[in-house]
Design a protein that fits this description.
The chain is mostly helical. It is built from 9 helices and no strands.
């Protein structure tokens, strides 16, 4: 079974049809997705700016990360769940959308970036915790994360306008 076939099957399920045709539920899910994105990205940006050595320089990096990670993680979880519901409402449309594909690629790269940061850089935080300018690995992780989240938000915002650009 191809991915397109799976998306066509998914689109024909009663739940997908009901969500897609719902007058209010789809809008509630979309609103939750956008509001959670604001919380998630706001917290992630604060953390990434500390990793870049641009803000909160008097605070240990470990304090900033440990205080923001629960908000980032919770926001990410709700954002992914609401995003999956948005995909479920119109899987074929999303599958065929170049902006959606770009968004998903950037999401995977952002997750890989976070994983690499936690496995390679964060494990040595005791060595650079109080430094106003973190090591190159931390700065790279923060810069890459900011770039990917900005691109991801832009691609997500462009999803409804694919026909305008490539119609």
């Amino acid at each position: 079974m191809s991915l397109l076939s799976f998306c066509e099957w998914l689109a024909a399920t009663p739940g997908s049809i009901a969500l897609h045709e719902s007058r209010y539920i789809f809008l509630v899910v979309l609103t939750v997705h956008v509001m959670t994105l604001c919380v998630f990205v706001g917290m992630a940006v604060m953390m990434d700016l500390r990793l870049l050595g641009l803000t909160m320089l008097r605070l240990p990096a470990s304090d900033v990360v440990s205080r923001l990670v629960p908000w980032v993680g919770g926001g990410f979880l709700v954002m992914v769940i609401s995003g999956l519901l948005l995909f479920y409402a119109a899987p074929v449309d999303k599958y065929e959308n170049l902006f959606f594909r770009a968004k998903m690629a950037m999401l995977v790269l952002a997750c890989v970036n976070a994983w690499v940061f936690h496995k390679k850089v964060y494990c040595s935080i005791t060595e650079w915790d109080l430094d106003p300018v973190p090591p190159l690995g931390a700065r790279l992780a923060g810069g890459v994360a900011l770039t990917l989240w900005a691109g991801l938000i832009l691609a997500g915002r462009m999803i409804p306008y694919q026909l305008y650009w490539f119609g």
